[in-house]
Amino acid sequence: MSSEPNRADLGKDPSRVSGMFDQVAGAYDRTNDILSLGQDRLWRIAATRAIAPKRGERILDLAAGTGASSVSLARSGAEVVAADFSPGMIAEGVRRYGAESPGGGIPNLSFVEADATQLPFADAEFDVVTISFGLRNVNDPRRALAEMLRVTKPGGRLLISEFSHPRSRAFAGLYRFYNDRVLPVVARFVSSNAEAYDYLNESIRDWPDQRTLAAWIGEAGWTDVAHRDLSFGIVALHRAVKPAT
């Protein structure tokens, strides 16, 4: 792995984005906790509650990173596949939660390296597919939404947790000030690759609003599309269902 900082751009070349996440894997969760002022924990709880995982369900957690969101789902007894296209993230997840990890790991949690636009799974394999803060890093998000539909069982569910756009102009201005002026300074102290967070900031700014993403989900073939805002619209939870027939 190169020691030079790997900074992706809005072209979102898969190899560059993957390499960037490889470099920040070790401290990724801690850095996110600091930069989000602890809000990432609340967003994870909200996503888990929205999914309402049940024992016996098979859940695909895409862009799972080191598996923090996957562990939350697996505690319900559901069989969870944590997938990410960054080998470094997957390795860190296996180190923390795999069979050789302290405590013996979590038996109903597995890790798979996977590209969201070309999922290595069979049709109709999962009861639930979820992706948290990863769809905007995919170079073809609409194709990824179609792939998620393909691997979901008829009647199965989709849950997307993603950064979005605050509706209040005043709060949006405050949020933009934090992202543009405060976050880069803090990232230089707490991250092993501060330039990666420059890209992540740009990707948030460039990402479409709630209604546009909802339209993409519907165009991919999902039904019952709905969303709700978290933290005044900094994040939105998007839900949908695969048609039963």
Overview of the molecule:
A 7-stranded mixed β-sheet has the order 3-2-1-4-5-7-6, sandwiched between helices. Helix 2 (28-35) packs antiparallel against helix 7 (169-190) and helix 7 runs antiparallel to helix 8. It has one domain (14-241): Vaccinia Virus protein VP39 (Rossmann fold, 3-Layer(aba) Sandwich). 43% of the residues are buried. The chain is built from 9 helices and 7 strands, in the order αααβαβαββαβαααββ. The protein is α/β, with parallel strands linked by helices. The termini are far apart.
How would you summarize this macromolecular structure in one to three sentences?
One of its GO terms (molecular function) is demethylmenaquinone methyltransferase activity. This protein is an alpha/beta fold and 245 residues long.
Layout: helices, strands, pairs:
Blueprint: H1 14-24, H2 28-35, H3 39-51, E1 58-62, H4 68-74, E2 79-84, H5 87-97, E3 109-113, E4 126-132, H6 141-151, E5 152-163, H7 169-190, H8 194-206, H9 210-219, E6 223-230, E7 235-241
Helix pairs in contact: 2-7, 7-8
